[in-house]
Amino acid sequence: MSSENVVIKDRLSKLRAKMAEYGIDYYMMPTSDFHNSEYSADFFKVREYFCGFDGSNGTLVVGQDFAGMWTDGRYFIQAENQMKGTGVELYKMMNPGVPTIEEYLFQNMKEGQTLGFDGRVVSTSIGEKLEKKLSAKKISLKIDKDLAEEVWTDRPALPCHDMYVLPDELCGKSFGEKLSDVREAMKKVNAKAHLLSKLDDICWLTNIRGNDVECNPVILAYAYITMDKFILFVQDKEVTDEARAYCDKVGIELKDYHEIMSFISGASFDGDVLYDKRNTNFLTYKTLSAKADELKVALVNKKDPTELMKAVKNDTELKNIREVYLRDSAKLTEFIYWVKHNVGKVEMTEYTAAEKLDSMRAELPGFIELSFPTISAYNANAAMAHYEATKDNAAEVKAQGMLLVDSGGTYMGGTTDVTRTIVVGEISDEIKKHYTATVAGMLQMADALFLEGCTGRNLDVYARRPLWDIGIDYNHGTGHGIGYILNVHEGPHSLRWRYAEGVSEAVLEPGMIVSDEPGVYIEGSHGIRIENIIEVVERSENEYGKFLGFDHLTYAPIDLEAIDTRYMKPEHVELLNKYHKMVYDKVSPLIQDEAVKEWLKEATRAI
Amino acid sequence: MSSENVVIKDRLSKLRAKMAEYGIDYYMMPTSDFHNSEYSADFFKVREYFCGFDGSNGTLVVGQDFAGMWTDGRYFIQAENQMKGTGVELYKMMNPGVPTIEEYLFQNMKEGQTLGFDGRVVSTSIGEKLEKKLSAKKISLKIDKDLAEEVWTDRPALPCHDMYVLPDELCGKSFGEKLSDVREAMKKVNAKAHLLSKLDDICWLTNIRGNDVECNPVILAYAYITMDKFILFVQDKEVTDEARAYCDKVGIELKDYHEIMSFISGASFDGDVLYDKRNTNFLTYKTLSAKADELKVALVNKKDPTELMKAVKNDTELKNIREVYLRDSAKLTEFIYWVKHNVGKVEMTEYTAAEKLDSMRAELPGFIELSFPTISAYNANAAMAHYEATKDNAAEVKAQGMLLVDSGGTYMGGTTDVTRTIVVGEISDEIKKHYTATVAGMLQMADALFLEGCTGRNLDVYARRPLWDIGIDYNHGTGHGIGYILNVHEGPHSLRWRYAEGVSEAVLEPGMIVSDEPGVYIEGSHGIRIENIIEVVERSENEYGKFLGFDHLTYAPIDLEAIDTRYMKPEHVELLNKYHKMVYDKVSPLIQDEAVKEWLKEATRAI
């Protein structure tokens, strides 16, 4: 029999006592910060604290006689192990017969009971769905209480790091200029005020950066914008003297981060309020909408205007991005050389290889941080979508097969993202076929020529077709937008093909940058992904409109050892040779080591 | 000075007297029948009767001191000529400074006034827009009065032709089977009743056909469906004995077409009512929604379930369609031969050429009618999107340039649609370049291979890319669905690329058929369109899903005299040769005349 986990049981019983105290019958703990960021800091690991499971996705629901944790297929085994002896039941999401949280609560809660959760870590769409479903049973919600606050005594602090200001010359556009654009957009929808909750949008708009979310150079903040005011809600402690002087100068009024809810409750909107429901947490939304009702103004739910402005890079940003990508590509080239020449000779694991690359990147001028934790996956591990090697759990990289490395950095001048699958030894003919088709898809997408008005849905087949032709698909989008000294994933545009009723798309515009990353994932055998970042550029204009295309931003060699021209159309060979010539011409001047340069010449030869 | 048109002026003054009698200040007359059919019968030509303009698009608005007619750029000159001396002002739609009808009425009508129109010939979307805009000025609508009825004494009758019943063996599925499917779909949205207004959907569902709309083998009808009843509203006079016996047998209750509104007003829905707002006219919608309010049931606005069922052809339909398309292709081949061998020798105009083709089609077994009026356009005329040659106004076809012919027939076994652009003499190198790119686009689209889940928006670039590569686009969709012994245009699927927020798309499914018709239109010079109909077929299935592709249904030669391989990729040449081999193999056995057969061999030779 497994022993009891008394630590967790004790925590749960303290939580239940607090629930009783506040009249909460069920308490829900999902996995998110207040801004639905890609990474949550330790402060937000409430679910982990109360059940022991530390995977990246999971929601814990606790009642007086019940505790259940919902997670997806990636984590069934891990969750079962980590929750042993806690009494917490595992609910395997998407498995037949397993209720969703909503269904479970609807079936098990009684009329008149209360569901509690911290409304700041729940998205408005989920909050509204729960509210609607449970209201049929007269169940009420209590969303303004974070019970962990009172139980978790040694809780880590909310992230709070010094903010810093980017010079206008680096941003290409001052805060003042950006703010006028936002105000113009507000006028277009007749909004007198705008509440902005999205961290990278706030940072882009203010030209401020920070370090409050892992790998995202952002500050925890809200912004409130009217025609004559700009209020930034941010933790007092992270405002440096330099930042305060900047804010004074450009007219940013500072208020403490924790004042946001009381500010909204006490606000006096003199007209409609623009907000973006997708980016606004449930408590903020409810507070905002109660206030709007009271003041008899409307809430205008539209995409944050900053989203599109941020996505279309300006000339300064583009110039810096192009340079940063070249330097980053040169560094990756040196890393590929290092892997190929050291595999089988030095001790190398997925983890140490990633460490090597990370340390090489850190040498580059203007390096700030990794843009995401480096993915380093050897052979069959590369077939797992969410594989993460750790120091203690990493495969040895031997002189056989392939190593997939997906990595990037954020620099003063841009944020990068690139994937190469590196041949480190013998590979099968089947792998060559898959590799060649992946490369053909990546190059064919980058070679697209299209009329302005196209979205990623029109073009995605270019990347997939060579794989579809051999009966293979990859279960992820082809591409995402990338921030400028910001998050590695941003919208509104993307390269995806699947249709979903009502999902909005964004037209591709010159100045947008997007990843182009087809792949092949064969369970238990191998995984291949080749990712370049490409820039939307104008090719020509005539009476039919603007014809657009893509320029590569990434220039790193594609492994010719895995290319078999028997699986390529003549135009794919041509595209590869053309690309490789550019790689050598652009990257070799940035490489000091003659041996690497020599190798690169061979690695980029025409085939 | 132009003389007065006393006939029109007299009609307008009688209309104004009636308007005064019914308290209507402005009366609006658009161009539509009660079901928004593609063609309106003479009965519906009210606008033409009151202003003289007979183009295919126009809306007349009459006040006591005002008469204005709104039409689009195709018709400015024609409208001006036809309305001379009538006192009716021309409003040039989309021209700068010209108000829309909605804007005009909002600006010129006074508070408390009444706008009248026949709510049966106005779509619900337009009706609702007018209602919303004008309600701000307290203007009311009177939509249940067709004033033409009382003024237009020699008005043609409402179309009323004998209906007929298709045998179940020809339809592949009986009315009873189709009805169960519809009832299943109703249950899925919790509807107890369903009002169906779309004529081709009603005909598809009942296996009944008629002749009430030009080129559409449909009856004027409404259908009302509950879990135990099926009521067909149709003019008594068109119910033949055979049709009545069929209806009795399969459980179709007949009521007169004109009873529909009073039926709805007197109905007793015992649950929610499914309807499709896109297909329901404004009067029907308002009557239905008033009744639903009264009975406290909801209206469920969803796509008519029949739309998708009708679009996915069953095996019997597909078998018949394939045969019909072969015969139709053979006939078109004979016509192309006739054109090429008679041009410059016999008198030939665009109109007589079309007559020739129409009469040839009429010889085919099971011929019912043309599926649309044949488009026959010579040289520069082919560049005009809506060009229509008439007996008195048709260009002579000389032995120079090209003749574009877009045509089709409805047969007992299918409805066809095909376009070929036929070289009749010398053409320029530029034309060859355009022609070759058009053909490459058509063939490349048909060669698509894609995972189930794709819609036309994912694939449209295949047809356009060869044209985009030479800086050309065509300002229409690439493809539309086609009915089975029904309308030549049907949804829900299509091949189009442009994104519009909220517009719904349909996933391509095996059994759907769709046109593939890229083109080039150079004003004042030439027009090219090549149209095949293609069928969605399953190619393979594996763990990634079903891989789909297209099979051609149309097999008619593509004019090699206009093909220049310098403008083709190797795979385009391969596709053309492969297609031409199939054309010869499939079509030559259907051709009797040895000379034609001989010519076809040469016309489909590998290049």
Describe the structure.
The structure is a homodimer of 607-residue chains. By secondary structure, chain A is α+β, with helices and mostly antiparallel strands. Chain A folds into 3 domains: 6-151, Creatinase/prolidase N-terminal domain (Creatine Amidinohydrolase, Chain A, domain 1, 3-Layer(aba) Sandwich), CATH 3.40.350; 164-308, 3-Layer(aba) Sandwich (Creatine Amidinohydrolase, Chain A, domain 1), CATH 3.40.350; 312-603, Creatinase/methionine aminopeptidase superfamily (Creatine Amidinohydrolase, Alpha-Beta Complex), CATH 3.90.230. Chain A is built from 19 helices and 28 strands. In chain A, strand 22 and strand 23 form a beta hairpin. The model of chain A has no long low-confidence stretch (mean pLDDT 96). Chains A and B meet through strand 21 and helix 17 of A and strand 21 and helix 17 of B.
Quick structural overview:
Two copies of one chain form a homodimer. By secondary structure, the first copy, chain A, is of the alpha+beta class. Chain A contains 19 helices and 28 strands.
